[in-house]
Amino acid sequence: TNLFMDFSKAIAGHLTGGPAKVAVVSSGFMGMLSGSASGNVATTGSVTIPLMISMGFKRHVAAAIEAVSSTAGQFMPPIMGAAAFVIAEYTGNTYWAVCIAAFLPSLLYFTCMFFVVDVRSRKQGMTGLPKDQLPDFKESLKKVIPLLIPITVLVILLALQFSTQFAVMYSIVALIVSYLPFKAKRVGIRKILKGLALGSKIMIPVTTSCVGCGLIVGVMSMTGFGERLAYGILAVANGNLYIGLAFTALMCVILGMGLPTLAAYIVLAALGVPALVQLGAPMLAAHLFVFYVAILSAITPPVCLSAYVGAGIAGARPMKVGLTAMTMAPFIYVLPFMFVIWPGLLFNAPFLEVLKNVIEFMLFMFPLIIVPQKFWMTKMNIVEMVLFTLCTLSFFIFKQYALASMAVLFGAGAFLHWTRYFREKKAKSAVAA
Q1: Which residues, at least 6 apart from 16, have a Cβ–Cβ distance to it below 8 Å?
Q2: Are 76 and 67 in contact (CB under 8 A)?
């Protein structure tokens, strides 16, 4: 944890709103390994949340940033909190195909979160961490490389379609070997055995949850409840995929509350996916949709376990943290719908289609980040806010020409805003001189 934290500080600590961006980066690193959003908040948040508060962030905002960032880590390849292996088994795809499909949505998630943090930091006039608090980049990279080697070995072996057991065994061997050149980090047999024992203990609650979920899925299959629920979703949707996605998302958030993400996914895959596939959603996209929305239950009130953990560290009210997490990052609830509707976001389309979908998504989402804050590089005026709002709305109005209309409106708003920003900056420099 400390190694990833230092590496994240070296990468993002010097930027505007440094501590918050460190939270985004470190949570991405840790979340993909931990498989627990609340555990990730407790681990990285104990460092990042006090740092954010010390730099001027309000307590509930600092906790919300950490909660939102930590939650997405479970969707980040290559590990995805171990869910990638289960999704591959359920869909009949290879592990590598699941990782490739999840890569772009997770990248867009963290990119948007970076923008959220940047805009809020600029609005409050925040700076990065002082130089004396920044670790040396080369030293941090040197220390974190031994941790990246086993992950790389795991990914390569699974990409070459070796069995999961084989890949995991050799990634553990790679971890041990990668530390041999570092005298200070060398471990003896006793520590290795303790590590293996600790890994087994960590797996116990996840395994028992999965066993329980297996019983639930078995009962639903024997009683026909799963089929009846699928028919219910189809009846409500009436052939409309959008309504089916919305109804399934609501079910995922409710049933996912309080469960470990992997366990929630196993139950929800049996309940929601069949209906989505019948409505026209691709199989892999439907499974990723269910898994992603199950993750969001960690920050969605009233349960929002990640928000509770973050609130405890920050000394804030849990419900306020949960509501702040929902409102500060609207993209987290839009993204799963987008990657089902736009196959390019899952790399299930030609390159130009992928590029088009990514640009459309960013043009759609960026106004939703800056308009509520009434701020980008400087305070926005009414004309700029109207143009950016129309940019998002044009996605629904001009469906066939959405990209062109969004690009024109966003370009006009950005041109006016940046022109005024540079003019104000020049005027301030002249006054200071």
Answers
A1: 118, 121, 122, 126, 127, 128
A2: no
Question: Which residue has 């609340």 as its token pair?
Answer: 38
pLDDT tens for the 433 residues of the chain, in order: 677 777 788 887 778 878 888 888 887 777 667 667 777 888 888 888 888 888 888 999 999 998 888 888 788 887 776 777 788 888 888 888 888 899 999 999 988 998 998 998 888 888 777 787 788 888 888 778 877 888 888 888 877 878 777 888 888 888 878 877 765 555 667 777 787 787 777 667 667 766 776 777 677 667 776 677 777 888 888 888 889 999 888 888 877 776 777 777 888 888 888 888 988 899 999 999 999 988 888 888 877 888 888 999 998 898 899 899 888 888 888 999 999 988 899 998 899 999 999 999 999 999 999 998 899 988 999 999 999 999 999 988 887 788 899 999 999 999 999 999 999 888 888 777 6
Q: Write the CA distances from 314 to 50, 215, 398, integer angstroms.
A: 7, 38, 44
Collect all residues with Cβ–Cβ distance below 8 Å to 115 and sequence separation of at least 6.
Answer: 366, 369, 370
Q: Which residues pair with 379 in a beta bridge?
A: 375
DSSP letter at 344 equals G
Burial letters 97-112, b for 16+ CB under 10 A, else e = bbbbbbbbbbebbbbb
How far is 375 from 396, CA to CA, in rounded Å?
Answer: 24
Q: What is the DSSP string of 152-186?
A: HHHHHHHHTT--HHHHHHHHHHHHHHHTTT-GGG-
Domain spans, the chain: 1-135+303-330, 137-186, 205-297, 345-433
**3-class SS of residue 130:** coil
Would you call 220 exposed, middle or buried from its count of C-beta atoms within 10 A (0-12, 13-18, 19+)? middle
- What single-letter amino acid sits at 167? A
| Distance separating alpha carbons of residues 312 and 165, to the nearest angstrom | 38
SS3 375: strand
What element of type H or E holds 322? helix 318-328
